[in-house]
Amino acid sequence: MAIGRQKEQEVAFSDFISPDKWKDFETHAKSISEELSKDIALSTAQNEKIRKEARELLKKEYEVCKISQDQLAWAEEKLYGSQVCAVDGTYSTYPMLSGIRCRIGVAATSYRNRRTDGIVFISEQQVHPPESSVLEILKNRKQESRLISGLLIRAIMFYMERKIALDRQEEWLMFNGPLVPFELRSGIGRMRALDSCLSLCEKMIDKKTIVGVVAKSTHDEIVSLGLALKPLEYLKLRSFKEDLEDWLPRAHFNTTDENRFRHFIDTHGPCLDVGLYKAGSRAYIFHAHQELFHEAASIVIRDSLFQPMRAYPLLIDYADSLCSHLLASSDFQRMVDFRLAKAGSLPFEQSESDQRRR
């Protein structure tokens, strides 16, 4: 069976590199418009098929709910009454020979513009002894010796999003992404951070009035089912415990961490549900406490109605815009460039791609 799949992949790859597929620029420029039109027409036809035929499947497999006007009014009162806080984070990185330099920022806000923010600068230099021999410096610059990684950066950001949100006074907390993202359940390798991350997630889940909306899901097949939903509809897909149990065998934890994670699955996994909602043109996956699932759906749908085309909670986008405005990646890059230039190190340290002539 595996051989058959390998052969199939080889045939597909050979088809992509076939000389018949490749064209010179002039020929491509003449044909690309028609090729795109045919390709998009096929995708549109598939979407229409899902829209028409998956409706009955959804009704059969799930309870399709619709937000009532009373629920919308309740959610609007929570939003306008500053009882909902949205939080989002951002980070900017600058790779150097001595390791990554990174700025991480988190912003939390409500519709009354009660803002909380936190920013930190981290670098590889902070985790290695400042006084080292040449051999030690070179050893620390090997990839396997690096401690600051993309996983660690994202875990710090997600951790602080939740910590800052939990320190606020609003009744409801709204997050951009899953409530318990991969980074906070990974242990972060050598950092041994599983217990502290899960403890914070447990505190967040115990609050109950929480919701996470996934803007960019890897489950396109689930989001595509949203084509069969009508605006203001939502449904409960499964318990988040199933996701955690499916993920555990791939985590490769040591015995201590595995026992800690199993305890988290047993005590807090059943508390969260995964759902799908549609407020306008497209659908999104969301996570919420199982006891307040319908209330959470009401809040995210009402907030999403403020921007029907994107149909995503406006308050989350507001928090995101605060991060983007205050902590633009381009500003951080220019800041590091300036310091490197002042130190006479810019030509050697600046990214090769940034030095290219275009």
Write the layout of secondary structure elements.
Blueprint lengths: L1 H15 L8 H37 L3 E2 L2 H12 L3 E13 L2 E11 L6 E8 L10 H7 L9 H17 L5 E5 L17 H14 L2 E5 L5 H6 L7 E7 H8 L7 H14 L3 E7 L4 E7 L3 H12 L9 H13 L2 H14 L3 H4 L9
Parallel strand pairs: 2-5, 5-6
Antiparallel strand pairs: 1-7, 2-3, 3-4, 6-9, 7-8, 8-9
Strand content: 15-25%
Mean pLDDT: 90
Write the element-wise H/E pattern from the N-terminal end onward: HHEHEEEHHEHEHEHHEEHHHH
Biggest sheet, strands in spatial order? 1-7-8-9-6-5-2-3-4
Q: Report helical residue fraction.
A: 40-55%
Instruction: Please report the distance between the alpha carbons of the first and last residues.
Output: 48 Å
Could you explain the architecture of this structure?
Helix 3 (69-80) packs across helix 10 and helix 5 runs parallel beside helix 6. A nine-stranded mixed beta sheet has the order 1-7-8-9-6-5-2-3-4, sandwiched between helices. Strand 8 (272-278) and strand 9 form a beta hairpin. The chain has helices spanning 2-16, 25-61, 69-80, 134-140, 150-166, 194-207, 220-225, 240-247, 255-268, 293-304, 314-326, 329-342, 346-349; strands at residues 65-66, 84-96, 99-109, 116-123, 172-176, 210-214, 233-239, 272-278, 283-289. The chain is built from 13 helices and nine strands. It has a single domain (67-326), classed as archaeoglobus fulgidus dsm 4304 fold. By secondary structure, the chain is of the alpha+beta class.
